[in-house]
Please model this.
Amino acid sequence: MKRLMVAVACGLLAGVAVAQDGKAVYDANCAACHQPDGAGALGLAPPLAGTLGKRLAVPEGRKYLPGIVIAGLASKMESKGVLYEGIMPNWQQFSDAELAAVLNHVLTTFNTAELPADFTPIEADELAATRAKKPTAKELRAWRAASQ
Model:
């Protein structure tokens, strides 16, 4: 019984560690452009706060979010009526679990109000499938447009 309780506690702590790793990855790699609060940098990096949760209401949005962190994108894009001309680098150096954690951090920290009622966290296997497929810029733009 004692071993079972220790195993359950370790499992819960591992989930907390993954969530904390998502924040750490965001703070160290994303916040410089997208800002610590996800507000973005005018004209350079679009806001993440209040803009991504609603994308998950359609399948294309569920493809777009893993796709943008895996493939990156150099493109003009509009968000909240502002045109952005930046380059989103790919983050292929991170593991699928780290990328899932950072996406879930962004979604659950900056987009809670916009998440669909049936939201389920993005899983590492979704990132692995995206990484294997290597989405093109054309696919990313189409998924973005379809999930606005």
